[in-house]
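Lab manual, section 2.4: Encoding a predicted structure.

Procedure: take the sequence of the chain (158 residues), apply the prediction step described in section 2.3, and record the output as structure tokens. A sample record is shown.
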Amino acid sequence: MSEYKPGTYKARAVPGSFQRNLTKNGHPEYIVDVFVPDLGNTFQVHLSMSGGAIPITLDSLEAMGHDGQKIEGQPVGLGTVDCEICLSYRMWEGKSILNISIRTSGSRFVAPPLSAAAEASFLALERNAIGSRRAKNPIQASAQKEDKKDVGSDDIPF
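Recorded output:
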């Protein structure tokens, strides 16, 4: 029987727990500890910084309070607001493991320090991802446009 009931829970990122890591396959990821009051436990969430997962990871950081600006060191605001996480289980190498949000493991993982070159490469990836995200933000784009009424093909406002 599973130790934790699958479902949606209120959680909060643990300030100072943010880590950058390269997986055993060399993929960049963030690791963040989240505390779940209803379960009285802290879990680690692994957030991928590879390919199509990057926008989801940035959304996840913002949901945990990150202001989306500073990328060096600990993200500003992380852990200042409550967020929701979903607990579920999935099979991994023949075992049922706890899955939280995007990627999770049930065990504590401490990322080894990155080399200066790896850290610089990681920060360049983050700058590019955040810059690209800002450029594509539809809310900012719409705020910059003039306020125009929608007009149908017959020029009748609706």
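Check your result against the sample. The longest helix spans residues 116-136.
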